[in-house]
Amino acid sequence: MRVALGVDIGGTGTKLGVVGEDGAIVSPTSVPTSDERGPADLVARIAAAVAPLVATAREAGRTIAGCGVSVAGFLDREREAMHGNANLPRLCGFPLRRALESRLGMQCRLEVDSNAALLAEHRHGAVRGTSRALGVTVGTGLGGAVLVDGQLLRYTGECAGDLGHIILDPDGRPCSCGARGCLEAMVNTAALRERGGGRTVREIIAAAGSGEQGARDALAETGWWLGLGLAALSPVFAPERIVVGGGVAAAGELLLAPTRESYVQHAAPAHAETVAIAGSAFAGWEGIVGAASLVFHGDA
Question: Is the full-model pTM beyond 0.90?
Fold first, then answer.
């Protein structure tokens, strides 16, 4: 049985796992991203975390076909290195693909994290069979990806551009990009934590699930802004379906229901009446599934 390694480097944490050709995840784990100690240290920690996964897979008779790496940021045209991300500045310009290939001893494929997430959903998840789709991942930042006629849209940084930085409120929260009120700034983990009294995202989601009104209100406000942002993006990309992933999306319907309500309130009827908004099929692990799928299926 062939498997691939999947690595998803986010602004706060890096997720890793072994993924089958059918998208099934084996032995998922994570390490802190910790940009402060530099990219070489991150590569070393990824290699250390991957080593036991590789050993276990090989002991089980699985063939590791390669490694797919999802990274939060713009990539160069050759997809060798990241060249833009305000949340991971030290990784910019670092030859990440070559460094990982050297440490892991196998071929690696590098992809923008939002692209990888949408590939996972298109090949195995919530937008499977859809010709035109918009995907957003909500976490430390907000990434967006677009499929048109089943192909990833690439024109800035090997992706659809910085969709998280459309401005929704010029008087809103400061954003890492230097503007104010960007979609990212209004819905990311920092925004949700502020609304939830400084608690972690997991704590807010758990409290909301237990019925605490303050936590539910924090998620509802976040969903309102997300729905507004998706309504603003829809006339540009005309998606048939939208999928929402990332750590904040772990709230499920507590986030998605107010997101849909806001979307219907703000979107033009042509979109509000036809576009379905779904949560990720992978509970926050879509990045490693999509990255690993590059090893088996290549680009979309």
Answer: yes
